[in-house]
Amino acid sequence: SYGIKALLEKGKDLLQQEVVVNGWVRSFRSNRFVALNDGSTINNVQVVVDFENFDESIIKQISTAASLSVIGVVVESEGAGQEIEIIAKEIKVLGVAPSDEVQGTILQPKQHSLETLREQAHLRFRTNLFGAIFRVRNSLMFAIHKYFNENGFVYVNTPIITGSDAEGAGEMFHVTNLDVNNLPRTEDGAVDYTQDFFGKSTNLTVSGQLEGETAAMGLGKVYTFGPTFRAENSNTSRHLAEFWMIEPEIAFFDLDQNMDLAEDFMKYVISYAMENCKDDLAFLAQRYDKEQQGKPAAERSELGLIERLEYVLNNQFVRLSYTEAVEILKESKPNKKGKFKYPIEGWGADLQSEHERYLVEKHFKTPVILFDYPAEIKAFYMRMNEDGKTVRAMDVLFPGIGEIIGGSQREERLEVLDEKMKKFGIDPEELWWYRDTRRFGTVPHSGFGLGLERLVLFVTGMGNIRDVIPFPRTPNNAEF
Ligand code: ATP
Ligand code: MG
Ligand code: MG
Ligand code: MG
């Protein structure tokens, strides 16, 4: 019994052998040729059904989307597609798929829009496109674990239900075990959320960083890789309410080392996926390149998907301070009108994604690492620079994506951290455990957060983050 991927890889070595293959029918041509796929590869194997050998009742049950178990003999294929095909000796129809019912679904073999495919996310796995995307996603996840484990990192799991709001951004999902019909109230009648979780206010994690830092201040090099939740009430193609984040955290590590790590890591995982998903990426590249040709010249990517990936692997990321970036942006003419939608307001303002993408796609044409941001626009835990105005933050910006990684060197000096918390209105009592890492043997340390789905977007060339996660969670999407 062979998976179709292994079967096609062995190819002619299997000639004349009897094999068992299982799969779903992608098409049944001339009542004779079944294209069978089992999800292991983008390629189908052709099963030849000679009708003189089969009951008409069996042949009638074979149709698009039906599932089969076939015993057959491997022979050389005369068609152009694969080296081999299978002459069926026995066919078991495991599950039929009546044609009139398939008609109303995305299983019907024709072009469906990505929106339609999204509405039937539970069936998308059967399509070539989503098969390719999810195998690439898997390969990237595996490469991530491989990279860190080969480099001495310890994988730690940080809590999903937590009392801490790492970013102070307030985009949190509340978690409660209270009876919603009988919520405890404070004296002025407001819901008393402090009673949430057996007497403590809790939310779903927005980042495992603060807990990850405490692990690094003992284990040295750690990474977390888990689901992350943000109540993003906006409809962008780059934000999900539930996404997967990879967060390495390293003790005795400064921002320059952090930038080196981010670049080396990104190149490793991208090159791993390119090596291990050649067929899938060739298919995705075809889709991407065709889509680019349909765009107006100004929006078109100059490089095809594979060229773009290779370009990232073969070129150094540009490193640029926030201050230098603002200078460049003030002087740029991004389009015919010569203006950004949100003009750069000068030093101190947060960059919009149009600014980030301009730097990457038009100005440098390579990934960019921006560092040393104004302290006011970044989180409280980032290390203050000697200038007293900027912090040791970094954002890695990628073409077609914008921000893909956010990271920093962390403030290791307790008195500076306390000062910062005060400024940001954070109660030091609540973060007593975080402060402890600075009280007992504090060391310089750094880390970053990568959104898995933004990485998958980049590698697959897909345009919408909803199409690179099996079941996207966005404001209007919690069906499955
Ligand atoms: P953005 O500016 O795009 O909203 P952020 O600065 O809020 O991102 P961080 O808090 O720095 O994000 O999180 C680290 C990384 O997690 C980001 O660089 C990005 O890759 C990813 N990320 C953040 N928010 C989301 C989201 N809502 N959906 C998917 N990925 C996300
Ligand atoms: Mg955000
Ligand atoms: Mg950001
Ligand atoms: Mg960020």
Automatic annotation (TrEMBL):
This is Asparagine--tRNA ligase. It comes from Faecalibacter bovis. InterPro entries: Aa-tRNA-synt_II, aa-tRNA-synth_II, aa-tRNA-synth_II/BPL/LPL, Asn-tRNA-ligase, Asp/Asn-tRNA-synth_IIb, NA-bd_OB-fold, NA-bd_OB_tRNA. Gene3D superfamilies: Bira Bifunctional Protein, Domain 2, Nucleic acid-binding proteins. It is an enzyme of class 6 (ligase). Residues 134-470 form the Aminoacyl-transfer RNA synthetases class-II family profile domain. NCBIfam families: asnS, PRK03932.1. Its EC number is 6.1.1.22.
